[in-house]
Design goal:
The structure is a homodimer of 187-residue chains. With 187 residues, chain A is of the alpha+beta class. The first copy, chain A, has 8 helices and 8 strands. A 4-stranded antiparallel sheet of chain A has the order 1-8-3-6. In chain A, strands 2-7-4-5 form a 4-stranded antiparallel sheet. In chain A, helix 7 packs across helix 8. The longest helix of chain A is centred in the last third of the chain and has 24 residues. The interface between A and B is medium-sized, with 26 and 26 residues. The structure holds a DNA duplex (30 and 30 nucleotides).
DNA sequence: AAATCTATTTGACAATTGTCAAAATCACTC
DNA sequence: GAGTGATTTTGACAATTGTCAAATAGATTT
């Protein structure tokens, strides 16, 4: 159940971390469209996708907006709630039938209290997702709707077959109609 | 030299962290427009503003783009380089005459190796700057140029007197001309 | 105070994208 | 396989914002 981003790290040190987290993780299967976390409640889990696709979304002026998408080997959660320990504005749902590892936050904290040397991996994890957001900002600032779409296709070609166009559109910050036209203009 | 965001944390635990970081921090004064870090080199410092204003910027298609702005009680660095330990694409400069605390990354790592219990504060720090980026993305996705400007004025009213309009514009993802017109349309 | 350099504003126009409404396509159920 | 509901596409139009060029204002130097 190792996260993709950890695969480059020194195996020896990592093994203990993984063992400790394996010990508190549980595996679940969910059918398509299952809500893993509901907005307005506190989120106490990190979800790691073994198989399938999941997204976080929220409602902005009544519209469903996708904030994050995760596929195999990636993690997803209601990050605001997990960080600030309060009610979340995000929902998390699986978009396909999925197999998910759950790590409960309180147990994770306990592991980190007992073995603070693991904290540096959490730090590494946060650094990675921070850089992901920085990339996304640059994407929004400097690339046109069309370019953003092309970059997503380049990065995750399979995603477009696996998730609704409307979700892709809101994730990219484009109206669904514009995204549809962009697709039509290709080939 | 405490960071604004740490002020809400339990004082007792925090005191040791601060003492340990004070021990490796050095204070410097820089005149306006001094470059604290140059792109293409590895950044080995975190800068904490005691007085003044600083920004990170980079060149995108030859244009100066402001990525981050920090004022008193906030921190700034070439975050890509600090995280990934490689050459940075960012420059860091002070925009006003400033007093800055420097913390060298290698020494910070050493402190964290010796006292891994401090890692959780680093984690807290990363979580905070992560949420800042998430806010910025939402800002870009859902608010017009005018609204983004108004929100910045609301949040940091003094900034507009302290830093060039062109820097504010690129930070907000707006052309300088549009920002100028937005300002003209008010009052 | 004139001269020079920098920063900001203004004008004219074009391009990108959003919105609303309707049609077409697709997917699933009975 | 007809029918129903969800998803995607298309059309027409308006609004926001960017670009390029020039003018103005402000700041700094001699």
């Amino acid at each position: 159940m190792i996260l993709e981003i950890f695969k480059s790290l020194p195996a020896a040190e990592l093994a203990e971390l993984l063992a400790d987290f394996q010990a508190i993780a549980t595996r679940h299967s969910y059918p398509k469209n299952t809500l893993l976390h509901q907005e307005g409640t506190r989120c106490d889990h990190v979800f790691i996708l073994e198989k399938g696709v999941a997204r976080t979304f929220y409602y902005k002026d009544g519209k469903d907006v996708t904030a994050h998408i995760a596929t195999e080997g990636e993690s997803i959660t209601a990050i605001d709630s997990l960080i600030q320990r309060k009610k979340s504005r995000y929902n998390v749902e699986v978009v396909e039938d999925s197999v998910v590892m759950l790590i409960a936050y309180p147990e994770m904290q306990q592991v980190l209290e007992q073995k603070p040397q693991h904290e540096k991996y959490i730090r590494f994890f946060l650094e990675q997702i921070y850089m992901d957001l920085a990339d996304r900002i640059e994407n929004l600032l400097f690339y046109t709707a069309k370019e953003r779409y092309e970059r997503l296709v380049e990065d995750k070609p399979d995603l477009l077959q696996r998730i609704n166009l409307s979700h892709i559109a809101s994730y990219l910050g484009i109206s669904q109609e514009t995204l549809s036209r962009i697709r039509a203009s290709k080939e």
